[in-house]
Amino acid sequence: MKVTGSVRVPGDKSISHRALMFAALGDGPSRITRILDSADVRSTAGVLRALGADMPELSADFVVTGHGLRGLRAPVRDLDCGNSGTTARLMAGVCAAQPFASRFVGDESLSKRPMGRVARPLSAMGASFELSTGERLPMVVHGTELEKVEWHNEKSSAQVKSAILLAGVCAGVEVVVREPTRSRDHTERMLAARGAEVWVNDDAVLLWPVQGLPALDVAVPGDPSSAAFFVALAALATEGTLTLPDVCLNPTRTGFFFALARMGVRIDVDDERTEGGETVGTLAVSPGELRSTEIAPAEVPSLIDELPMLACLATRAEGETVVRGAEELRVKESDRIAAVVGNLRALGADADELPDGFVVRGNRASLKGRVTTHGDHRLAMAFGVLGALPGNEIEVDDPACVDVSFPTFWRDLDGAVR
Question: According to CATH, what is the number of the domain 13-219?
């Protein structure tokens, strides 16, 4: 299999969500370009519209006119988050600081995911919550004037941390969030770019009280989690180089690239620069002889979304690949540990579950069968890449589920393979 050409991956999903939120909470017009126009990001736009934000339809280039931290209004309908956990958890932080109640709902998949992890710190700040059985959606957030908090996250979670930071921003109070290891830091970077005083080290974030957020134009860089699928595709190839321009290279998001480099993949970075507080560059990826690796718990936050792809890639790596400390995968869009291992075994791969991860033993046998995605976009794309390898015959049961993060994935996959 030969890879060639260039693939421009969609705008970063994490940054796209936050760009909409900060623009709606800002003072005046903010121009947003290259946003990810996907189902998840449209959910955030819809929730903000329901809260009275001046939010146009998403496009390649549009303007959001913010009305300040106190500019949102009580919703007259449920806040429908679709399949987006980022929307539900981060907007819970925003709504916790508003003088009204908001009811959050989501699709069947999102309604199975835990929300108590954001309700607890926001309740400690003074908000109150009504959660469904199992601390899940539907969820009612009763906003109020919040108090400052110092919160210790038992597990590193960018969504929980961001919910607390957004609550602190909207309430104008000081917050401190501590974590076992550093999670994604887009919220901190985007706040600092808007002039907020944010202090960060390896295990804590301190946000001083904010009185307002200035408008700021944002050009959304390419999503490294989406780029990971094409980096893996190039890794599985026998020849060629695949180029991925303008990818976000935030150091809390590049663990997958470092892991693949250990596995023998050549990844070069060109045109590296800083835009809006984020490191951006062009990746040039070439195949190598794949060997196994081990992922330690401390690495997991920097590649949590890429682990299904890593598992699929490990089927073609020499030796035994082991991932530990990734129990968070069990409460994503699906139980990704069970789903990845179950699908790999059904296809004929040698894989086992661990309570907090998995083991995959590489071989060169052809893999054949039908993959059950459980509506999980990352499973669909990971097995789609594995299915592109000559000799494999893999059918993905729900290819359309990739629309939540990468609507052009299948077309781009076909175009990259020769």
Answer: 3.65.10.10
